[in-house]
Amino acid sequence: MGHLSAPLSCLLSPGIASLLRRHVLKASHHFSAVSRRRGRGRSDLLSRSRASARTDRASSACGSSADSLWSVYNHTKRHTQDAMPSVSSVSVDPDSIFANNEMSLRDTEVYGFDYDYTLAFYSSHLHTLIFDIARDILISKHRYPEGLRAYEYIPDFAVRGLHYDVQKALLMKIDAFHYIQLGTVYRGLHPVPDEEVVAMYDGCHVPLEIMSDFYGKSSHGQSMKQFMDIFSLPEMSLLSCVNDFFMKHNIDYEPVHLHKDVKEAIRDVHVKGIMYRAVEADIGKYICYGEQSHAVLKKLHEHGKKMFLITNSPFDFVDRGMSYIVGRDWRDLFDVVIVQADKPGFFNDRRKPFRRVTDKGALLWDRIHKLEKGQIYKQGNLYEFLRLTGWRGSKVLYFGDHIYSDLADLTLKHGWRTGAIVPELREEIKIMNTEEYVHTVSWMQALTGLIEQMQVRRDAASQAVVGEWIRERQAMR
Ligand SMILES: Nc1nc2c(ncn2[C@@H]2O[C@H](COP(=O)(O)O)[C@@H](O)[C@H]2O)c(=O)[nH]1
Ligand SMILES: [Mg+2]
Predict the structure, then answer these.
(1) Which of 114, 115, 116 to mutate to test the pocket of ligand 1 (most atoms within 8 A of CB)?
(2) N or C end of the chain, less CB within 10 A?
(3) How large is the ipTM?
(4) Average pLDDT over residues 339-348
């Protein structure tokens, strides 16, 4: 399913865009010249006898309009190739930080961090581990067929952000306008033909009411669930493998039950602490050591910045990981540490109070009047956090990897600055920097310009040519 990770076109540099506009303009001048010449040709035809002129005119006009379009096409293609920007001139640094808004780090007084996939990065072994354990839970606890053990985690099968139709057991990419992207729909481990998708959904549009909610959760019978978490990659892979197994063996099964069972099996891997214990037992295998993590956090600390951590993970797990990544003194750098925060509820639900946890994991019952450095707190809520710390608005910058659970509410409701950690971007940018990508995008934009200009021609021959261009553009996408 490699094509699901299509690079983000919004990162196209303005340089390429203006260059492409120039090609299209040149092409349009050329077209005007061609059509003027063709006009003269047509008037020549009129001087012939009426009967033969009608036939001649019809076939010649068809031929000539198609010819002229292909001539513009070839001309534009040559121009696009000749003026192709060098890859190095348009390449983007994969290690860049992209700012969507202006801000000064000097004015940022408080830095907050999520833990998993923000401070702690995991190796691909973790996804294999989650997949294997959840698959085995399906077999042992939910009595799924033993034959499933033959399936292994498929690393590049899915990307974050895909939707899963729970009733139809289909995994797919849906764009921001709720259109299914044809060519991305998978049943089990195999693509579904476009015509079948269009027939099933009566087109490609998915109405809002059947999409999952803001947090990617499906409720009130909505059938499209979105996977927004990096942790959900093994879940998508497992769903697809089990669907594949059932279909391959012609087993009549209920996709809704399958979705629920896989979700529960995955939840067990987290909630029952199986994953935490496995990672703690072999930390070097699962956690990628961040060479600069300690230096960055120390520098912020030395510059008098306040720092806090809000994670959904339990303390033991975070402590082991942070000691490995940052060092045993990591707690000296953080002013407030909140574990098992239950995000995104943490940002919205005012009812849950903070609770102090000892280093040994015991829960204390005293009321919390201040959040103290050196202590560990569990749960709580953002309103209480703001009241106790006074860390409000744009002086706070919070980093997280989950667009909805970590970042959306903080920006939209509370005015904190947010930094999205999007590890996928590095690979996307590397693809964007390839010669093949630069060439394809350049030609696709030039072709789009041609289509926009020529589609107003209503004669059958022109329409056929424009139709071919549209198909070519579709194939490139
Ligand atoms: N109950 C579930 N927990 C999950 C699932 N996927 C991930 N997780 C756990 O969430 C936290 C994320 O921590 P954060 O530091 O990024 O806030 C981590 O402990 C995971 O184990 C799931 O599907 N169900
Ligand atoms: Mg996280």
Answers:
(1) 116
(2) C
(3) 0.98
(4) 94
